[in-house]
Amino acid sequence: MSVVCGAISAMAFNRNRFESQTAGLALARTIGREGLRAPTLKMVAEEANMGVSTLHQWFAGQQNMLPHAAAGFAGIFWEQVAQRVKARGWGGYLPTTDDEVFFLRAWLGLEELARSNDEVGETVRDLWHDVRFWLRSSIGRELTDYESGGLVILLRGLWDSLCSADPIQPELAQSLWAAAYAALHDVPDSNQAAA
To answer: How far, in Å, CA of 18 to CA of 142, rounded?
Structure first.
């Protein structure tokens, strides 16, 4: 049994698998409703409207379900962000509707779970690595580690502020985010400065 669990936990999480996405959405809804306590197989199964035995069969227990479900939800969440950025430009990184805020809260819950679960932490780190690429693409030039790190910190801070008990005004969040974009977009790269 431990050999099977070890093999499952060592495999790369496929965010696009049906079972990972199904469990991921159920996990997000559970976190959104129940808060940050780690959900049980039963809670996620009820939310996904399926039997506990089905989830157990898919993931070989709760320990393996959590990272797979987190990866599934992460893929869905970041796909939504990518679609918003494509449709709305730079401002699409910030939520504007109640549904977008709900999914953001669930993502922030997963980030909190990542603090105590190494496999979930790996999923979160992988996605933020992808986000750094998206941010570079949005700006249209290579970013230094300092610039990229600053954007990630600003985005995480704005997300946290938008979902806090005393939330920041969405207009202020958009203004701060737009100012960061303008500051980085207007910086000439070294090739242009040398010309």
So the answer is: 35
